[in-house]
Design a protein that fits this description.
- The structure is a homodimer.
- By secondary structure, chain A is α+β, with helices and mostly antiparallel strands.
- Helices cover about 35% and strands about 30% of the residues of chain A.
- Chain A is globular, with a radius of gyration of 19 Å.
- In chain A, the strands form 3 sheets. Chain A has a 6-stranded antiparallel beta sheet with strand order 1-2-3-10-5-8.
- Chain A folds into 2 domains: about 140 residues, Jelly Rolls, CATH 2.60.120.10; about 80 residues, Arc Repressor Mutant, subunit A.
- Chains A and B meet through helix 2 of A and helix 2 of B.
- The structure holds a DNA duplex.
Chain lengths: ~230, ~230
DNA sequence: CGTAACTTTGAGACGTGTCAAATAGCGTGG
DNA sequence: CCACGCTATTTGACACGTCTCAAAGTTACG
């Protein structure tokens, strides 16, 4: 339902900003103008408690939204892949920070543009509401997972959800490090690594390299999740 | 900002439904008509995946919103105290169930009434948005707590938040059982009990009875939370 | 006053975190 | 193109915390 579409450079209008391209985001029934911006690995896209003046769409790469506890430990709220909208807030400020996991192209929209489109076009308003509903649901699923599941089950659930995002369900390339996964699942790097190793031993997955995962036994993966 | 106000029975209009009273809920800048309904301890107010046709306000007592995992374990998403709105959804169906913790009086509003008021009155729409933002924020705080904190810290944080809801910050009467607290904090009953006992040993709190908590050392309580 | 539900306490098992070290992968510069 | 060094990942041994199971104690209510 969401689709990012980079405009082919019109030869007559010289863009004034070197590294930035204009682009259009199709959301609901509206087309919203934005600016394409590149962020390098680990670069901050917006900070926690910053004024939420923009809304973002991942064009390529991956983005993480992250919160830091008072003691400095971090929790990764969510990973965002191409096509995902992030940074949408109900309040005037961002509740968390966003950082590029890898080098990433991000479409930056004015928040007011999106809100105006949502107010003017019912279908767009509905899409925005649906987006909020999904976010809410995911936040609660996440809390439930952290409370109810063990290390192995969390990792299995994580892989399953991630694989569901891609066309090829038999293999996936993880954009993020073990540390990122650990902070998302509220585990240590070691526990995540051990979970991967265990699944490889059980022939549930194969690991040609650390970041590449072959999903060999989909059934076992699903069984693990709900353990 | 929210206030429940039971209408004094107008002598001329006979209410047709015996056990139910009409009442008005002041929300944002609107006054919304609803029906006051009583639920007894552990009674279901609405079920998971049920059509979300109503919105609810706690008048007296306490309510829990709850989800069940595929294996039957339950997680209490949130406790709702007098004045709290619950059951507000973005999607057509309820993402969780709601049950009365104790005997509780609940004000039941038509969802459409609230949505109409929000659409017509900007201040009310803003209030609804603020409500959604708070819910979102709390869901994420909760996930963060489950991921980052130990048993003692979770219980301390729980007590602190609960105490903050009442006028008297030096003592509180827990409306819910240890089992409810455990399922909210993703712990076992025993772990919750041990955390209480430990805090009593440290003179952080006193427990005249299982449900009554005297907060003796507010500073220690805050320190515990962030451990 | 008795019974059922709730709470507390104890002992031991299990799982994850911690610390330390070995290994693999990757980009950089010679 | 290879060697180097840095970072990421894996593995192991052990400590610590929470869960499990069992039983005693308490409270509320008929």
């Amino acid at each position: 339902m969401q689709h990012v579409q980079t405009e082919t450079s019109p030869p007559l209008s010289a863009r004034t900003v070197g590294a930035r391209d204009c682009a259009v985001f199709e959301f609901g029934a509206s087309r919203i103008n934005g600016v394409r911006s590149r962020f390098e690995r680990n670069e901050e896209i917006f900070g926690q408690d910053e004024q939420a003046e923009h809304v973002y769409v991942v064009h390529s790469g991956a983005v993480r939204t992250v919160r830091y506890s008072s003691e400095g430990r971090r929790q990764i709220v969510c990973f965002h892949l191409p096509g995902d909208v992030f940074g949408v807030e109900f309040s005037p400020r961002h509740a968390f920070a966003a950082e590029a996991v890898n080098d990433a192209d991000v479409l930056v929209l004015r928040r007011s543009s999106l809100e105006r489109a949502a107010a003017e076009t019912p279908a767009t308003g509905a899409a925005l509401l649906a987006l909020a509903a999904r976010q809410m649901h995911e936040a609660q699923e996440h809390a439930m997972m952290l409370g109810l599941k063990g290390a192995g089950e969390r990792v299995a659930a994580f892989l399953t959800r991630l694989a569901g995002r891609f066309a090829d369900r038999s293999a996936l390339d993880l954009p993020m490090s073990r540390a990122d996964i650990a902070d998302h699942l509220a585990l240590t790097i070691e526990s995540v690594s051990r979970a991967f190793t265990q699944m490889e031993r059980d022939s549930t997955i194969a690991l040609p390299s650390a970041r590449r995962v072959i999903l060999r036994d989909w059934r076992a993966l699903h069984q693990l999740q709900s353990a």
